[in-house]
């Protein structure tokens, strides 16, 4: 019994490290996927630990550059586009569970209905989520995570942090990410099958591979660009896309986040 628990926790540690690597990839996983719009919410740069954060950034970037990115590049080379898209859709469909739960916690009834509808349509008519048929029903994804939920409850973001392996974060974002992790089947105590961990590894590599084209958008000081992109993306999500002015109008570099 102890040996089984030891193997299970070892698998979880491996999964956690891989998840951390994708979060610390050079394009800030999931933070460059949607544009903040032509104008954006002002974002205060609260980075009191910049000296430390930069050192951690260099470490994370090196790990990604020498390990995760080569694996993702190989995956991108051998995987047909149709298969790659199907894998991405499958895992994106699972995030609707998170979207639905957090929409309820934020009392966003319409978003909860959309998340439930997307999951139902894609699971039933999209062959388990391999095909994203929900868009045909005019049900675009509405991302909601527990970090956003905490923000709506009045929890302050806290200072910007670059965490070893975990990448760009804030205390509020990290807490939300940990809470959302418990919504994954691999986090449930009743799930002991190693197949779940293989799926998580596939999800991480697939996500990293999809982010490779976004690397061309990085310009200027990489650390500053990534920090601004992360903070702007979080503000955009928390405010449900309600944006007012350019947060980087006074910055030297021009931040361009196109939808891809």
From TrEMBL:
UniProt entry keywords in alphabetical sequence: Lipoprotein, Signal
Source taxon at top rank: Bacteria
Annotated signal peptide: 1-29
Keyword rRNA processing part of the UniProt annotation: no
Keyword Metal-binding recorded: no
Family named by the database record: Belongs to the MlaA family.
PANTHER family in UniProt: INTERMEMBRANE PHOSPHOLIPID TRANSPORT SYSTEM LIPOPROTEIN MLAA (PTHR30035:SF3), LIPOPROTEIN VACJ-RELATED (PTHR30035)
The protein's name: VacJ family lipoprotein
């Amino acid at each position: 019994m102890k040996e089984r628990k030891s193997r299970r926790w070892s698998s979880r540690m491996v999964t956690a490290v891989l998840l951390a690597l994708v979060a610390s990839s050079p394009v800030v996983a999931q933070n460059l996927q949607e544009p903040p719009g032509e104008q954006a919410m002002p974002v205060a740069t609260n980075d009191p630990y910049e000296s430390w954060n930069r050192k951690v950034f260099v470490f994370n970037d090196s790990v990604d550059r020498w390990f995760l990115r080569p694996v993702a590049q190989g995956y991108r080379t051998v995987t047909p586009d149709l298969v790659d898209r199907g894998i991405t859709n499958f895992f994106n469909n699972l995030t609707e569970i998170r979207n639905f739960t957090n929409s309820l916690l934020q009392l966003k009834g319409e978003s909860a209905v959309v998340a439930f509808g997307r999951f139902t349509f894609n699971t039933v008519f999209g062959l388990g989520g391999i095909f994203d048929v929900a868009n045909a029903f005019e049900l675009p994804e509405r991302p909601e995570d527990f970090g956003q939920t905490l923000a709506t409850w009045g929890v302050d973001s806290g200072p910007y942090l670059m965490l070893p392996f975990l990448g760009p974060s804030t205390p509020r974002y990290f807490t939300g990410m940990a809470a959302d992790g418990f919504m994954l089947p691999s986090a449930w105590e009743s799930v002991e099958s190693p197949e779940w961990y293989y799926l998580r590894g596939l999800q991480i590599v697939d996500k990293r591979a999809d982010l490779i084209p976004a690397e061309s958008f990085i310009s200027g000081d990489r650390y500053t660009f990534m920090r601004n992109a992360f903070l702007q993306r979080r503000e955009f999500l928390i405010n449900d896309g309600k944006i007012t002015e350019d947060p980087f109008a006074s910055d030297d570099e021009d931040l361009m986040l196109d939808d891809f």
